[in-house]
Design goal:
Blueprint: H1 14-41, H2 52-75, H3 78-103, H4 117-125, H5 141-159, H6 165-182, H7 192-210, H8 214-231, H9 236-257, H10 263-274, H11 289-308, H12 316-323, H13 325-343, H14 351-391, H15 394-400
Helix pairs in contact: 1-2, 1-11, 1-12, 1-13, 2-5, 2-9, 2-11, 3-7, 3-13, 3-14, 4-7, 5-8, 6-9, 6-10, 7-8, 9-10, 13-14
Keywords: Acyltransferase, Membrane, Transferase, Transmembrane, Transmembrane helix
GO molecular function, one term: acyltransferase activity, transferring groups other than amino-acyl groups
InterPro entries: Acyl_transf_3_dom (IPR002656), Acyltransferase_3 (IPR050879)
Length: about 400
Amino acid sequence: MIATQVAIAPARTQAARLAWLDALRGIGAMAVVAEHMLPWLMPALRPYWFNLGMYGVLVFFLVSGYIIPASLEHRGDVRSFWISRIFRLYPLYLLVIGLVLVMAIWVPVRMEVPRHASSVAAHLSMLLDVVHMGGLADPMWTLSYEMVFYLIVTALFVGGVHRRSGLLAIAFGGAAVAAGLVLSAPLLPGEWPAIVTCVIFLAGLVCLISGRFRTTAAYSLGLMALVLLMFGSYVPWFGAAILAVMFTGTAIQRWEAGTGGLTPVVVSAALVAASPVWSIQAGWWWVQPDVWITTMVLAGGTFALGMALRSRPIPGVLTWIGLISYSIYLLHHPLLRGLNSMMGDLRGLPAALSSAISLGYLIVLLTLSWLTYRFVEAPAQRLGKRISRSLRSPQEASSQG
């Protein structure tokens, strides 16, 4: 979701081109941090008229939808795209997994994580939520939908139908409404979907990167992602709604480029807003119509405001937070759990002390996130670019140079 820093408009410099998207990532990251931090440290400040965490996540998904298909089309190369994604996502992800496992010596692993080989398989593919598995770090669930989106977009690109984003946004919105009406649990239960999915995923990635059976692999992975989304997710209507939001972001980019209209954006937004209304699985406070719609409006308004102001100078602190937002996103929850384990229940502390601890936590989080970006994320991205360049044929290099 937040791991989407790519170029789409060659007329401007890369920094200017991405500044507003980085700012949105920064806002989204800190909203998610606040959603998790406030109940543990300053519960009186947590809002309930909208969901801070879902607001941040929706902003991330709109950004991914806006930029990911454009990235693939700009590259015109499935191999380069997937090497970029692997080196963008996995190094920090694996580091955080290692951190959580080391912390398990004194902070027990979340109960939602099965003590079974299927959990290892689900973490390898990142398709955790769509094979109904809990992640070692709570925020990892969103990466499942990022990965589903990548797989479906790749299949659409290979099939030459990737420009039908508006229709896809509406289709997934309709699927969210329908799934909410008829599905109350995953139709692919048990541990086997995670293991089978991991095998197919790894084999498919080898094909996409090597070029062998690339078309077959792209279609197979896209179909697998679609089946898992609708029949393997914890909450099928929610998974479909997320894809509708992401393709809505793509539809906005098409509209901006002059290759699509805004009608699909309006229709898909209405369908996503309605998706939990009649859903069997919609008993949580944050999907009640007033809260859900308010959260959607705030996320969409934030994205629209970012677009409207992108030609103006963006506050440096927002772009810096956006730059390290993937680290912030994955590190913040394990750090919170570690803080809670060391200091116990902090909810009853005096306001001044709670504020001081919260400020200290944020300083540590931002410092560690900058360090992991500087020494893990950035070097891994550079390595991915070098590998991608080394694998290009002379014809590919000349066409992209």
